[in-house]
Design a protein that fits this description.
652 residues, mainly alpha, six-stranded mixed β-sheet, two-stranded antiparallel sheet, 8 strands, 60% helix
Length: 652
């Protein structure tokens, strides 16, 4: 097996602009964009402030400001920001991506190579990065990694919030990178966003390079870059706070290094880089071993077919395997010594303790293919029956095999509850395959343009229409709102716990299902009721459903055995009215139901704590704590006797 392209382009470039002129045009757009940004930052707040203070003689604006129904100055600033975002930034993004489409995508549709200019990838990268920034979000699961990273940065080791040596994260390398940012005084959310956007841009660049190498032409590279960059899921997970983009980038890096190794005059250098990149990929997520096996297997097979001397092939095999094996082996030995297991505890929570049925995994993959109209990809394995098709695909089989192995893995683990996050690591390979299918489907530019428009339209339709679906997959807006919504903000709950309780009793133990942001912002020990950070709950908690990562819940007996002080569960909130001592009957019934019929210890109480100016969260004070008593005496939280409520009903 030789890792060389099946065909290459021979037609001369069709673009009318020179590479230098194209790059100059790109830089002009960027300078204009930066100038408008600076102008807005300097002028807009001053103008709005002058309007608000009535130092500008604009009568209609003064009438608006005097209207009590109109929001105050902060509201005007937010409104101006929204207008600016939709007008200036969207225009700049459209211009940048328009340059890329005109100079790269249109020639590709017409069967001609794109102009070889650094301005084209630069246009695409900056335009799509800006678009990803506009879609930025953060999710609660990211804060689980932030908790481990924060404790590591503070010298407490990569342990859970209660000090337990348990691997409740699945992204060792990403956690180290976040810890480095925290150690330098950076906010983990902004730092994770910055790293994710940089990796997102790198993934686009590597996709261009890999597509042009495996297909032998820049037409496939241009279409693949557009398909990938326009994919809503890939755009959204440029942020989010998790390791998703790092894994996708490293898979692409390994593929590019393997190709360079087999076609370079210095193969040893690329073999070592491929080996170390593969090790980094596995240390980011251990399930990266699946695509690594395919890529390294293809590299080994290409060495066997290469007419090099046996000694040279052996040196390459050693360079390809030894550095990565040593790095991953040392990491696994450390995990075994530190955590007592080479597999993370999430494997116990999601697979060993309660594995979701295959139907959930099939539904997850099916929902993704339906959302982006990618069902034709399932026909690719059937092309193995036709030798002509195999010859035409050439190196594209290096993308086909990892994608279908990864899809099989997703089905086996039961998918995920976050919007198609598990699909992101192989989306660059999917984009390359899709671009190749579009070019192979027809030589007519109209047909190619319609197929490409269909895929981009599917992504836009998915972004606008997708919400929480029938198998329990949360959309990205919902994942973000759990952190930012006023009425159920995990961030506000954690901050309120820290303000009212942690200073008086830093060892107070809180039981909740939303352990990420609550644990990070409260700095209190947190008992994970879903068991991702608790082995006993992961294996022996009560079965509550089949949603991935949410199959088991801590029992009342387990919470009593751990001497939990506060039970929150999935936070139950209601409007907070100062001076109103009405009993929170519905919330009390919910938190009492979390005990699953277990006997309550003496002195257990229902308490309510304000989480912000508008809403309060209902909790069960299970075991007494000096901090809770002090907060009740200060009036910071309200307490009600359990006897005031009816018998608890089962929790949802």
């Amino acid at each position: 097996m030789s890792l060389t392209p099946a065909y290459s382009e021979a037609a001369p470039p069709a673009a009318s602009l020179s590479p230098r002129a194209d790059l100059r045009g790109t830089l002009v757009v960027l300078l204009v964009w930066l100038a408008l940004e600076l102008l807005y930052r300097l002028v807009a707040p001053a103008v709005i402030t002058a309007l608000y203070d009535r130092t500008l003689p604009i009568t209609w604006a003064h009438q608006l400001i005097a209207n009590p129904e109109v929001r105050p100055l902060a509201g005007y600033l937010r409104h101006a920001e929204a207008l600016y975002t939709t007008a200036v930034r969207a225009t700049a993004i459209a211009v940048l991506l328009g340059l890329f489409v005109v100079q790269a995508v249109v020639p590709a549709i017409r069967g001609r190579p794109a102009m070889r200019s650094p301005g084209l990838p630069l246009c695409a990268a900056i335009g799509f990065v800006a678009l990803a920034w506009m879609l930025r979000f953060i999710q609660d699961d990211a804060f689980i990694s932030f908790v481990y990273a924060d404790r590591l940065a503070r010298g407490l080791g990569p342990t859970w919030s209660d000090g337990a040596r348990i691997e409740g994260y699945t992204n060792f390398l990403w956690m180290l990178m976040v810890a480095g940012g925290i150690r330098c005084g950076l906010d983990p959310i902004l730092w994770s966003w910055a790293m994710g956007l940089a990796l997102f841009a790198g993934s686009l660049a590597l996709t261009w390079h890999l597509a042009s190498r495996v297909a032998g032409n820049t037409a496939t590279a241009a279409l693949a870059t557009l398909i990938l960059g326009a994919n809503y899921t890939f755009l959204a997970y440029a942020t989010g706070g998790l390791e998703t983009q790092l894994q996708a980038f490293l898979i692409l890096a390994v593929a590019c290094c393997v190709l360079q190794m087999t076609n370079s005059v210095h193969p040893l250098r690329w073999a070592v880089m491929a080996s170390l990149s593969g090790a980094a990929c596995m240390m980011t997520r251990l399930d990266s071993a699946l695509p690594m096996l395919v890529l390294f297997g293809a590299a080994a097979a290409s060495l066997r077919a290469n007419p090099r001397a046996i000694a040279a092939c052996l040196r390459l095999l050693v360079a390809l395997s030894l550095p990565g094996v040593l790095a991953v082996g040392a990491w696994l030995l450390w995990k075994l010594a530190y955590y007592g297991s080479v597999l993370p505890n999430t494997f116990n929570a999601k697979i060993v303790g309660a594995k979701p049925p295959l139907a959930f995994g099939l539904g997850y993959v099916s929902s993704f293919l339906s959302a982006y109209w990618l069902w034709p990809l399932l026909l690719l394995p059937l092309l193995a029956c036709w030798p002509a098709a195999r010859r035409r695909l050439g190196l594209l089989w290096l993308a086909v095999v990892p994608v279908f192995i990864w899809l099989t893995y997703i089905v086996w683990v039961g998918g995920d509850f976050m919007e198609f996050r598990f699909m992101v690591p192989v989306l660059p390979l999917v984009a390359i395959l899709t671009a190749s299918l579009i070019l192979a489907a027809s030589a007519r530019p109209v047909v190619r343009a319609l197929l490409l428009a269909l895929l981009v339209g599917a992504s836009i339709h998915h972004a606008l229409r997708f919400r929480h679906n029938h198998i329990g997959v949360d959309d990205i807006r919902t994942l973000n709102h759990f952190i930012t919504w006023d009425y159920i903000s995990y961030r506000d709950i954690g901050a309120s716990l820290r303000e009212h309780l942690s200073e008086d009793d830093p060892s107070l133990l809180v039981a909740t299902t939303s352990v990420g942001a609550i644990g990070y912002y409260s700095r209190l020990p947190v008992f994970d009721m879903f068991g991702l950070n608790d082995r006993d709950v992961a294996l022996n908690g009560r079965r509550i459903g089949r949603r991935p990562g949410h199959q088991r819940l801590a029992t009342g007996a387990q919470m009593r055995a751990r001497n939990v002080n506060l039970v929150i569960g999935m936070p139950f909130t209601r409007p907070w009215i100062r001076g109103n001592a009405e009993l929170p009957a519905e919330g009390a019934a919910y938190v009492l139901g979390l005990m699953d019929g277990a006997a309550l210890p003496p002195g257990a109480r229902i308490v309510e704590m304000p989480m912000n100016a508008r809403f309060a969260v209902t909790m069960l004070a299970l075991h007494p704590s000096p901090a809770i008593d002090a907060a009740i005496r200060r009036g910071a939280i309200r307490a009600y006797p359990v006897s005031a409520f009816a018998s608890p009903r089962p929790s949802p």
